[in-house]
Structure formats: C-alpha cells, structure tokens
Design brief:
heterodimer; A: alpha+beta; Ubiquitin-like (UB roll); five-stranded mixed sheet; 3 helices; B: alpha+beta; Aldehyde Oxidoreductase, domain 3; five-stranded antiparallel sheet; four-stranded mixed sheet; 9 strands
Amino acid sequence: MKVVYFAWVRERVGINYEIIELPEDIKSIETLLSFLSLKSPAHKDALSNRKLLKFSVNFEFVEITQRIKNDDEVAIFPPVTGG
Amino acid sequence: MVVKIQREDFNISDELELLNLEKNNSGGCVTFLGKVRSKNNNFIVKSLEIEHYPIMTQKQLESIESQAFKKWQLNSSLIIHRYGKLLPGDNIVLVITTSTYRQSSFKANEFIVEQLKTRATFWKLEETLNKKYWLKPEQTLNN
C-alpha cells in the first residue's frame, strides 16, 4: 500500500509517502492510523488527533471507517484550503 | 470543460480567446479571479505556498465542472488553479463560465468557486513577517 501525506501531516511525519505491507488485520483507515502510529514518535504525533485529519482512498474522499486493501493508495491530510 | 493545474501564471485574455465565445453562441461570460492578498487575518503576507495532490486534484476539479454542467446550461467552462510559491498580488485561480444567457454562467461560476474551497485538494502555507502556518478552512472559506 502507498500512504501519502500532505501539508502539516507530511511535515510532522517527515516523509512525503511510504510503501507498506498491509497486515491482514488492518482493514479500515481507522485501524491503519493505529498501525502507522506505532512506526515512530513522528507518526504518532502527526496522526494522534483524528478530528484534524481527512482521508482519501484511490483519489476519492472517504470517511475514517472506509475499508482498505493492500493495493490501495491512501492519502492522509488536513482539511483542504483550495480556491 | 477545461481544467489546468499549473505552476505558471495565466493571462485572462488569452484564456478567453481559447474558449472561442463567438463559436459557441455565448452571450454571457462570467470570470472569477482569485488573488493572493497582501494582508490576511490582520497579518502582512510575505508569500503563499500552495501544495496539492496531483491526480486527485485533477479528478476533483473535473467532477466539480461536470456537476456544474449538469445543474446549469453552460456552453463552456475553464478552471485554472496554480500551485507553488506565490506572492501578494499574484493570481491563484481563474474560473470562467459561459452560457447563452447570463443567469446560468453567474450561478455556475459561484458554485464552482465554492466547491473549490471544500473539494479541491490544495493546501496553503502562508508566510507572514514573523511566522509560517498552514491555513485552516475557516481562515479561507469566506475569502
């Protein structure tokens, strides 16, 4: 799975994206966040306040309960500020 | 329907010419130009850095345009959104909508601009005289 970060989430995690092998028991964005938070203190810090985060799977906005699979591209970012 | 996401500036006259208003019988053409303010939230702005999620941004902008075409009778439309480091006074976004009669292009233009605020995957890093911070939606929604 490719996990992509943007804006302050990218800055806090410290990388633009990472490729991970999704464990079998990780089936939603919610459980993915818990899994990623264990990777480093930077991940934990960036992903701790879930109310500040938005998500997409394969370039479509999704809710935190969205189911995911290993060949998805997941993006984690703050609310957008376009226009 | 045209969507362009680019680092470079744009020229409104050139873009209008490309839309070929005579050929598609457009009697109404509404143009919205969004620019970098020199003062935001009471701070003097030094620069505005815009980051985006390329494939998703393209998809979202195309989807917003398609929706506008479904809701109103438009002849043509254009969205240009810039990214990268911009300075006060620089152009950020251009939305053009054209229709045979004015009502549709007015309404569709406003719809597209509002949708950009909540669906276009851009993020703005504002640099003021003494700090740099990521803008929150509540700091841009009414602007």
